[in-house]
From TrEMBL:
GO terms for biological process: maturation of SSU-rRNA from tricistronic rRNA transcript (SSU-rRNA, 5.8S rRNA, LSU-rRNA). Residues 50-149 are annotated as: Disordered. This is Neuroguidin-like. GO terms for cellular component: small-subunit processome. It comes from Trifolium medium. Residues 59-74, 111-128 have a biased composition (Basic and acidic residues).
Length: 149
């Protein structure tokens, strides 16, 4: 980038110069890295804040980690966090699972019988068919005494 600016300042031609290709390539890399940087920004800020707190508390710089496994182990899940911290109650003391008990309910007391439901369903179907019938429609239009279109 500095070489490019130097050539521009001196008035040299930069057309088809390898530095232009290199700058375009670097720009492409930066554009591809931008979404990754956005995703990691929170974690980076968190680490920076932690390091600032550590240096301000101890008064000296934090030593660099000796191996990569220490850094990786910081971010893996901690199995101890999966264990419940709540003390078991007296009811659960035997260690056996007891499913919850539900009160029994009766399902058909307020409902009509099967024959009544079928007859009402049949009546509704007959009424629906009658409304769609041409004969019934013509009777209704004759009874309304409206002028024909």
């Amino acid at each position: 980038l500095v070489y490019y600016l130097l050539r521009k300042a001196k008035g040299y031609s930069i057309e088809e110069h390898p530095v232009v290709r290199s700058i375009v390539e670097i720009r492409l890399y930066l554009e591809k890295i931008r979404p990754i940087d956005k995703k990691q920004q929170y974690q980076i800020q968190k680490l920076i804040k932690a390091s600032e707190n550590a240096t301000s508390n101890t008064g000296e710089k934090e030593p660099v980690a000796s191996n990569k496994s220490d850094d990786v182990s910081k971010y893996r899940p901690n199995p101890n966090n999966l264990i419940s911290k709540v003390e078991p109650t007296a009811e659960d003391g035997d260690g056996v699972y007891h499913p919850p008990k539900f009160a029994p309910t009766s399902m058909g007391l307020d409902k009509s019988s099967k024959q009544e439901r079928n007859s009402s369903r049949r009546d509704k179907e007959i009424l629906k068919q009658a409304k769609q019938s041409d004969f019934i429609r013509s009777l209704v239009t004759d009874m309304e005494d409206r002028p024909e279109e």
